[in-house]
Design goal:
Layout: E1 5-8, H1 13-17, E2 23-26, E3 38-43, E4 49-62, H2 68-74, H3 78-88, E5 94-103
Parallel strand pairs: 1-3
Antiparallel strand pairs: 2-5, 3-4, 4-5
């Protein structure tokens, strides 16, 4: 089944809604989004709907290959991004970058 909902930590929602955050890095269990599909964005903690995005691409990404460009797309600095990814996925090296655009 194609996912129609995605969750973000509440502190990231303003960056998604403003269009400043344009990717998310997830593990394989959350990699089944399909380019061209419309997805509802919700806050992880409250399930409150925030906005709608269109999935543009889903590409494999190794943890060691996360770079400054990814950090800019995530709207954070590289050390902060790598720390957050390690906190969420402590032992996972094979990740996926999901690119999306805000639907006004």
């Amino acid at each position: 089944m194609i996912p129609t909902k995605i969750t973000f930590f509440e502190f990231l929602i303003p960056f998604v809604v403003s269009g400043k955050k344009t990717i998310t890095i997830r593990d394989e269990s959350e990699s089944h989004y399909v380019p061209g599909t419309i997805v509802e964005v919700h806050a992880l903690e409250t399930d409150k709907r925030a906005c709608t995005i269109e999935i543009e691409s889903v590409e494999p990404l190794k943890y060691d290959d996360i770079n400054t460009f990814h950090a800019q797309q995530e709207y954070m600095d590289l050390p902060e991004l790598k720390r957050l990814i390690r906190e969420i996925y402590p032992d996972i090296e094979e990740l996926f970058v999901i690119s999306y655009k805000l639907i006004p």
